[in-house]
Amino acid sequence: MGLGRIVDAVKGGKILFSDGAWGTFLQKKGLQPGECPELWCVERPDDVFDVAQSYVDAGADMIETDSFGGTSYKLEHYGLANRAAELNEAAARISKKAIGNKGWVIASIGPTGKLLVMGDVSEDDLYNSFKEQAVALEKGGADAVCIETMSAIDEACLAIKATKENTKLEVICTFTFEKTAHGGYRTMMGVSPADAAKASIAAGADVIGTNCGNGIARMIDIVKEMRAVSSSVPILVHANAGLPQNIDGKDVFPESPEDMAKQVKGLVAAGANIIGGCCGTTPAHIKAMKAVK
Fold first, then answer.
1. pLDDT tens digits, one per residue of 263-288
2. Closest Cα to residue 96, out of 123, 152, 154, 136?
3. Dihedral-angle region of residue 231 (phi above 0 means left; psi in -120 to 50 means alpha; beta otherwise)
4. Is the distance from CB of 38 to CB of 87 less than 8 angstroms?
5. Taking CA 233 as the corner, what is the angle to CA 229 and CA 235, rounded to the nearest 5 degrees?
6. CB 272 within 8 A of CB 223
7. 113-147: pLDDT as tens digits
8. Which domains are present in the chain?
């Protein structure tokens, strides 16, 4: 018997915990600047599996995949656009192998880097790229997709639509916000948390939320704004381990596992249902946050 749907688990009253950073983990394992992370799913699968397994061991209820840049548009920078299906399917299989039936695979889908408003790409082409990725992730064993780090509503909605219309996967959609000079939050395309929530829900997202861009304390206000839009749609938060500080030429994320754990109750009170990490977070951060009672 399977775990069922993520949405049903949340509506049953559970607070779920997701995983943390992948990119920085892979860099520690030797991923070089300019190298394609997704190619590791076929060339260094054991290293990718190790990242996934570390979060399972930390107690994560769900883990992502090494597929953030897995659209054909991102992969074309490495001459790998024609291998999008292969790499995404491999990414999902690795995470599914790690978590098995103990939790969910929420496969990562990131932005394409193309802007519809600039005429970089057509809606049809963007839709088809997301479709190819989502179908491959489902084939590899994903339970859901996490469309993440979005800044433009039109691109996010096309990704949601492409997944919903071509797979049976649950859809999570998160946006990245920065604090403005006036104290509110906006994406780099000027989208507010409330507008992102409304658009994602209207497009068919099962779970909405926010990731990256901020430390966990700042996520509380973003969650409150999203929760005001809907009292029932689950909200996911993947926060950074604080705002990065450049020390000796390297980005260092200052928040310790204990620092992030202290904010869990505030996030839940604000309306978050699923909590995990983004840049700078580690299995130790996830373990500490999940231990909060």
1. 999 999 999 999 999 999 999 999 99
2. 136
3. alpha
4. yes
5. 90
6. yes
7. 999 988 989 999 999 999 999 999 999 999 999 99
8. 6-290 (3.20.20.330)
